[in-house]
Amino acid sequence: MNKLESLMSKYPELTFNFTTQMPEFQGALIMNDQVFINANRSYEQNLQDVAEEIGHFKTTVGNIVEQKSELDKKQELEARRFGHMTIVNLDGLIECYKVGILTSWDLSDFFEVRPKYIWQALETYKSKYGEVFIHNGYVFDLRNGLNIHPATKREVQDEDFLF
Fold first, then answer.
1. Does an H or E element contain 46, and which?
2. What is 90-155 written as a DSSP string?
3. Strand 15-19 to 34-38 pairing
4. Cβ neighbours of 117 (radius 10 Å)
5. Which residue has the higher pLDDT, 102 or 140?
6. Nearest alpha carbon to residue 37 among 45, 27, 47
7. Smallest Cα–Cα separation from 64: which of 37, 39, 30?
8. 16: helix, strand or coil
9. What angle do CA 104, 90, 138 make, to 5 degrees?
10. Domains (ranges, CATH) in the chain?
11. Cβ neighbour number for residue 62 with a 10 Å cutoff
12. What residues does the IrrE N-terminal-like domain cover (predicted)?
């Protein structure tokens, strides 16, 4: 099972429909419990789009298609961030570190997304947790790309790093 199939299987309350009838610019659209996915797009783009639409399902209230208000834009950003954190999750990044997968190209292969998406996900984490933080015993330093290392006792004791 690939990552897209695995992601969709985690949401049995949603129905996923691949269609060739969507405009080229639109990757996916959720309406109630139906997710319509543009079948003309690449696998990587579909994975990214589906994760964002699930983000809309989990976080969005109302119809925000036209992005009329600041609240609509905020909800769009929240759904996008949900997608980033769902696909490029911190535990997966730790797994990559442990086996020596560290470049954006290798990370994109591991997570089955485009390299640009990796950088967007890292920006999401930076905006949410700061440039340096600890997760599950590993320090994430996002000041200059992605640097991960096991946390020292001193780092673990410093409450400013923890989330």
1. helix 43-59
2. HHHHHHHHHHT--SHHHHHHHHTS-HHHHHHHHHHHHHHH-SEEEETTEEEE-TTS-EEEEPPHHH
3. parallel
4. 23
5. 140
6. 27
7. 30
8. strand
9. 100
10. 1-87 (1.10.10.2910)
11. 9
12. 32-114
SS3 55: helix
Residue 46 has pLDDT above 90, yes or no: yes
59 band by pLDDT with thresholds 50, 70 and 90: confident
How far, in Å, CA of 70 to CA of 78, rounded? 12
Ranges assigned E (strand) in 27-111? 28-31, 34-38
For the chain, what's the residue count? 163
Nearest to 46 by CA among 18, 76, 10: 18
**Res 163 pLDDT > 60:** no
Task: Give the global pTM.
Answer: 0.88
Residue 146 burial (CB count, 10 A): 20
According to the per-residue pLDDT averaged within each range, which of 24-28, 84-88, 154-158 is highest?
A: 84-88
